[in-house]
Model the fold of this input.
Amino acid sequence: MLIDVARAASLLRENDDILVLCHSHPDGDTLGCGFGLMHMLQKLNKRCRLECADIIVKKYQFMTEGLCDCGDFEPKFIVAVDVADIKLLSDASAQKYEGRIDLCIDHHGSNLHYAKNLLLDASAAACAEIFCELADELGVEITPKIADCLYTGISTDTGCFKFSNTTSHTHVLAARLIDCGADKAEINRVFFETKSRSYAALERLALDSMRMYFDGRCAVITITQEMFRKSGSNDGETDAIPSLARQIEGVLAGVTLKESKDGSFKVSLRTHAPMDASKICKRLGGGGHTRAAGCRIHAPCEEVERLVLEQIKTELDEIDTTE
Amino acid sequence: MLIDVARAASLLRENDDILVLCHSHPDGDTLGCGFGLMHMLQKLNKRCRLECADIIVKKYQFMTEGLCDCGDFEPKFIVAVDVADIKLLSDASAQKYEGRIDLCIDHHGSNLHYAKNLLLDASAAACAEIFCELADELGVEITPKIADCLYTGISTDTGCFKFSNTTSHTHVLAARLIDCGADKAEINRVFFETKSRSYAALERLALDSMRMYFDGRCAVITITQEMFRKSGSNDGETDAIPSLARQIEGVLAGVTLKESKDGSFKVSLRTHAPMDASKICKRLGGGGHTRAAGCRIHAPCEEVERLVLEQIKTELDEIDTTE
Done:
């Protein structure tokens, strides 16, 4: 059932022993919302716990400062944040929580309505935007720490206000969060102005792998497990890679194929208008936004690339016909 | 004489045949202010012309759309925008306009007060922030085109709201400019999400040249005329290079030495706290902001590097002593 912010706030206020679920391969938005919510709930003296299928890397640790460990408890209310599809929790968690998620707060238009209650704002550039309003409805003051969490969600999901999803409302909220004490300089330094030496090495390898297709309108980057070994980098510091392919002048579709430990590939697609990334990824079993979407394909690299290029070709042909 | 926005607006309103001066090696802020002001002045039916010592590259051309060519005229009022030092106009222009600049609108704390009237707001992240207020004082509506110019100034001078100079007020103004019709998605795509193939090649060469000093706390990049030839790139697309050196984890001072055609070097210094870039560059005959400053040195590359490293060493020693 679709609900509004006031109803979501009521549900959270009426319940206790709350489990907060973030999507796997967590990013700044799901964690910013997750930990931001945890801070809000603890201000309301509620027991809560956050779960994420993957390791939360060090650069997000500041979000947990000031949170109490509520110990182990049987959750009575389960909230998923920034999770468009229950499968994005991880296969195991999807099975475990199937039909049990009480509330989902999300900004993906592609949300599969798997939760009992869904607070969805597809116009929000980041899910964290919704949580600014939620804090007000909950009557929780946005502390500097909550501001840090939500600002991180907004800045990371908009490429620091660079992506086309950014609205004037996004800026208004950013201004408010800065006034509430968000340490934006430090957050932006960590997320946008810092490359570890290992990441810098990985980026070089990734750029070396770039292939161009369809008259330079599509660029494909591959990141293999071998590249992680060579560079000393890891899966937790690859957020910025998907943008690299789209950045080259003339590219409409930038594809990144990232090999997981199980040999499957996480496909990240970034597009420029009129290319619809969400449409392409949906056909490949994934989803996302118009300009940024993804899917996972269990196949060898060449086969994954072939499948993705096939769909991109179809889209490009359609664009050529329409023009 | 220091003046406020209302007085600056009066001066502009009282005068006609206005010459607008931008600094050499023009960036998005000086041009955004310059062309933004041109649009405002033409709305007020004034004759005006913009001068810049260097070529204005293609990506800024959108700023001139809708402007009339007022033909040649003897300027009766001269305004410099985002120009901290008259020498930044170019040596020839500095000589030509010495003592003749009626108004300077600037946001550099290091401004040398060379103009008859100075409107200075050193708290503004971009000079374009001041022009938002100026438009109001002039009673000129911020059209989509003016919004484009001013948004470009703000976004380029803040690294798209990423640099520490960004304030909540910067975001409030960005929100306003977006509501006035700034085509932020396209502007950000052009300035932050597009690398020409030649620039991408130059960036690789620049990164290849990176040397680390002082236990990884200083990184130096050199860009030579030879690299421009090799990559097919040019001086007009090097804005993003100075940030690269500072991005490596642990670096407090990122230095870029860019060789000009006359063999001199433009030094760009980007720092993290507590390193004061402005202080260092001032000692080398330049100036700028706390985290981003520059100077020009007429000497061979090795000598330029030695001079800059010497100053950085002094600063680092001071920091080590203080800690």
About this structure: DSSP finds twelve helices and eleven strands in chain A.
